[in-house]
Amino acid sequence: MSRRAKPLLQDDSVAKSKPARPHDPAQPNLPFDPMPERIEPCLALLKPVPPKGPDWAFEVKWDGYRLAIHIEPKGVRIITRGGHDWTHRFPAIAEAASKLGVGTAILDGEAVVLDEQGRSDFGALQRSLGGRGGRRSSTESVFFAFDLLYFDGHDLTGTELSVRRHLLEGFLDGSSCAIQLSEEVYGDGAAFLAKACSMGLEGIIAKHRDRPYRSGRTGDWLKIKCVQSESFMIIGYEQSLTARGGLGSLLLAGRKGHDWVYVGSVGTGFNTKDAEYLRKTLDRLKTSKPAVPLKGKNLVFAQPTLIAEIEFRGWTHDGSLRHASYKGLREVQDNAAVFDMSERATL
Question: What's the predicted TM-score (pTM) here?
Answer without folding.
Answer: 0.73
